[in-house]
Amino acid sequence: MSKIGKQPIKIPKSVTVSIDDDGVLVKGPKGEIRVPLLNGVKAVMEEDTLNISITSKTKQTKSNWGTERALIQNAVTGTESEFEKKLILEGVGYRVVKEGENLSLNLGFSHPVKYIAPKGITFDVEKNSILKIKGIDKGLVGKVAADIRHMKEPEPYKGKGFRYENEVIRRKAGKKAAGSTSSS
Predict the structure, then answer these.
(1) Cα gap 5→21, rounded to integer Å
(2) Which ranges in the chain are annotated with CATH 3.90.930.12?
(3) For the residues 143-152, what does the mean pLDDT come to?
(4) How many other C-beta atoms lie within 10 A of the C-beta of residue 131?
(5) What is the mean pLDDT of the segment spanning 157-161?
(6) H helices then E strands: how many in the chain?
(7) How far is CA 3 from CA 35, 40, 63, 69, in A?
(8) Which overall architecture, per CATH, does domain 9-80 show?
(9) What is the pLDDT of residues 62-104, one digit of tens each?
(10) Residue 78 DSSP one-character state
């Protein structure tokens, strides 16, 4: 039995869910997402809850059970209220500028780096160094945040680069703190 898979999904009043052979279509005030049904998994709607069950007892089907429930729950949450990741850019001369729907990033290279926003993602920039990534698809928001962070990952000496909002960067001491040994 899957501890996650057997939990029912509560459907809020502002979200509608429809089930067909291809998958589950979730519509809410922020948008709509189609979640395909994995092998051996079926969804059953009962009033304002959605239950996920399995059709066979194979190991793969049991693995798909919890995954499918989590994907549908994320779709319900995302269409009701968007997911958000916040990246903070640290470093002298580094900045983020929003150009229309896309980004222009000055990251210490000889040229600004352009990042084109995927469909369903919106950016908010605060103080040229705080970037908020918003969208209804949790996986896509996380992937975009990881792609942008990968452009300039935080380095351990000065901490320059992109970091997540609550991420702690372990700092190294550098040459000065190594101690000097005199050979007299």
Answers:
(1) 19
(2) 9-80, 83-164
(3) 93
(4) 23
(5) 88
(6) 2, 13
(7) 21, 17, 11, 11
(8) Alpha-Beta Complex (3.90)
(9) 888 999 999 999 999 999 999 999 999 988 889 999 999 999 9
(10) H
Let me know how long the chain is.
184
Smallest CA-to-CA distance from 40 within 65, 69, 17 is with: 65
**Residue located via tokens 């901490």:** 159
Q: With 70 as the cut, is the pLDDT of residue 177 above it?
A: no
Q: What angle do CA 112, 90, 88 make, to 5 degrees?
A: 90
Tokens representing 56?
A: 């066979």
> Per-residue DSSP letters for 63-75?
HHHHHHHHHHHHH
Four-way CATH pick for 83-164: 3.90.930.12, 3.40.50.2300, 3.90.25.10, 3.40.980.10 = 3.90.930.12
Closest CA to 134 of 105, 98, 107, 159: 98
How many angstroms separate the first and last alpha carbons of the chain? 71
Place of tokens 């351990």: 156
What's the Rg (C-alpha) of the chain? 22
